[in-house]
Amino acid sequence: MSTADQSAITAWQNKSLSDFWLSGRGLDHNSKTQGQPYALFSHKLLASEDTDAQAMALTAILGAVARVVDIVHGRNKFTVNFSSQETRTDFAAKQIALSAEPLFNPPRGYLLPDIVDVLTGMALHEAAHAQFSSPEYYTEMPGNPFMAVIRNVVEDTYVEHLTGLYYPGYAGYFWKYRRYEFDLQPEKWAHQPKQNLMENELNLRATEFLLVMRSTKNYVAKVGRVNQVAAMLQKMIFIDNPERLRKLNTRSVARKIYEELFGNLIQHDIAYSLPSSLLDYNKRGKHQGEPGTANNNNKTNIPSQLQNLIQNMRQEQLQVANLSELMEAGLDPDYPPPPPPMVVFRRPLTDEAAAARYEQARSVVKPFVIRLRNRLSWANTRQVINRYHLPSGELDQDALYQARFSNKIFHRTEIIDTRTRKLDIGLLVDTSASMVYPAGEGLSRMQLARNLAALFVEALEPLDSVQTWVFGFNLKGAVNMYELYTPASTNKSRIGMTGAEGTTPEGTALKYAALRLMAEGRPLVQKVLIVIADGNPNPGPETRMVKEQVKRLKNLGCQTINILLGDRPRVYGYDHVIPWTDYYTVTTDFGRLLKKLVEDNR
Q1: Where are the membrane-spanning stretches (predicted)?
Q2: 230-266: b or e for each residue (b if 16 or more CB lie within 10 Å)?
Q3: Nearest to 167 by CA among 137, 126, 206, 124
Q4: Do 449 and 429 meet the contact criterion of CB atoms below 8 Å apart?
Q5: pTM for the complete prediction?
Q6: How far apart are CA 417 and CA 345, in angstroms?
């Protein structure tokens, strides 16, 4: 190893490469770690009961890892996540899943940037395989366990060195990953002596070859042949011309290495019948958590609930970053104005507090639930009509005395369903920051909106002819559309997750809620959109969009209803406007309106 390489390794040992990517992203502003950035953070990360804090931290970590992967392999657009039961490495889908083991069990002395270095090395390693390994590497892995080890070692060395040639500054991540994987726990890779002399020698040579090629401590094998074969492989792979290296056939190289390492010991076919105690290297390091592998345990997989929250935050983070770049570009006269904000549909995770808030809202509106339901269900009640004086049917006893020789003494009951009218109703709840203002009766506007949402859901849910969607909306970097209740997800506790932050993208919310309603609703069924909001929509494009969308929905036959919680002007073109006064009045007006919609559209 050259003096320059040794100096580089020493530099990697003395610093954390991910400090740059983690700085300024919130983790170093944690009040618990000020003055000692990242210290002890990872040791207690997943032991915390604050799921949101965990998700925010893990999202920041994924952001740091993904930045490096994007720089090195950005044209492939890899998605980086932590491994869970639902998320595994899938090269066809360009998805990389990382083991969470470094976070669950951080090595002694490792701070958060050191762990992120390790995770970045893992992600770069997987991305390098996807970019530089030939398809046969995945489809033609030999059944010979010793040949499989050689094939993996050759391929791992090849893709890491090739990546380092194209991006020399990132080779340190591979070194950090190898250090963590192969040197921190020597017993994990130690050769286990076997009574069978042949099996013992095969495992010894394979293990020694693995450590010589992958260890960061200049490991010297106990078997001279292993050192000679490792030197031969290094001459083949450790060259400085990446284009020439890409022409190397690693499959042929692996076969040659195998013959040199074991050729004087056994015939190739004998090795297929001998077991290998060599740690199943083919499955280690892939971090997929597949059933039956060494990685399928609770220490390496993120819980599904936490994974969903991380992915939501990560998606929002990416969209906000894209939006910021577009907005900056819009300041340049050579660029067109930025497009409208991106829209993110999110399904918030519920907790006990959300369930309690919903139950409180339900108890407040309980006296009005039946009243509203009855007003709509009356219009959806079947009509029963009895037809009399028929030549056959049930005996009409009242007609027996009328005609001495008549056969018109029967009647038949007919049920007419023409009064039944189906409705698909979408409810949009403003969750912007202005909803914290008081609405009277000791309630904030947000609490009142939550109570009204509970009233509509409780009243309409039992009616088979009605399907209901409830969305919260606000603008905070991106337009957030919170799925609080849908026919496919009927957990009413989500309505208790409504908060108040950001601004009011009412026009965008109308547009995308209508799209969901049209896509998921029933064909040829009357659509109704109800907006519960207080102040004016965001000025400019959003205000214009409200009027445009209301007009467009009217042309499509979709009725729009605005329930006003504040003192805003009625200039947005809604088909119907119901100002908030009290529950009794709103229930009466809304019930009368729905009844009219049903009867007018029969």
Answers
A1: none
A2: beebeebbeeeeeeebeeeebbebbbbbbebbbeeee
A3: 124
A4: yes
A5: 0.52
A6: 37
pLDDT in tens, 203-251: 888 889 999 999 998 889 988 999 999 999 999 999 999 899 999 989 8
Out of 345-354, 363-372, 521-530, which region has the weakest mean confidence (pLDDT)?
345-354
Q: Which of 188, 184, 176, 67 is nearest to 119 (CA)?
A: 176
| 63 vs 120: CA distance, rounded Å | 10
Identify the helix (H) or strand (E) that includes residue 134: none
574, burial (CB in 10 Å: exposed 0-12, middle 13-18, buried 19+) = buried
Top-tier CATH class for 352-375+421-600: alpha beta
Asked if 56 and 317 touch (Cβ cutoff 8 Å), the reply is no
CB 512, CB 343: distance < 8 Å: yes
CA atoms within 13 A on the CB side of 487: 18
Per-residue pLDDT, averaged over 174-197, amounts to 82
Q: How far is CA 136 from CA 93, 128, 188, 369, in A?
A: 18, 15, 29, 64
Query: Number of C-alpha atoms within 13 angstroms, CB side, residue 571?
Result: 8
Q: Which residues contact 557 (CB under 8 A, 6 or more apart)?
A: 526, 527
Torsions phi, psi for 481 (to 5 deg): -110, 105
Neighbouring CB atoms inside 10 A of 567's CB total 8
Q: Strand, helix or coil at 465? A: coil
Give ranges for CATH 3.40.50.410 in the chain.
352-375+421-600
State the burial class of residue 77 (Cβ atoms within 10 Å of its Cβ: 0-12, 13-18, 19+). exposed
Backbone angles phi, psi at 226, to 5 degrees: -65, -45
The residue type at 27: L
Mean pLDDT score across all residues of the chain: 75
**Cα(149)–Cα(271) distance, rounded to whole angstroms?**
12
Residues 181, 184: Cα–Cα separation, whole Å? 7
Q: SS3 string of 333-388?
A: CCCCCCCCCCEEEECCCCCHHHHHHHHHHHHHHHHHHHHHHHHHHHHCCCEEEEEE
347's CB contacts (< 8 A; 6+ apart) are 308, 312, 482, 483, 489, 494
Counting Cα atoms < 13 Å in the Cβ hemisphere of 574 gives 22
Amino acid at 255: R
CA dist 424 and 345 (Å) reads 19
Chain position carrying tokens 């090795």: 271
Cβ atoms of 510 and 553 within 8 Å: the answer is yes
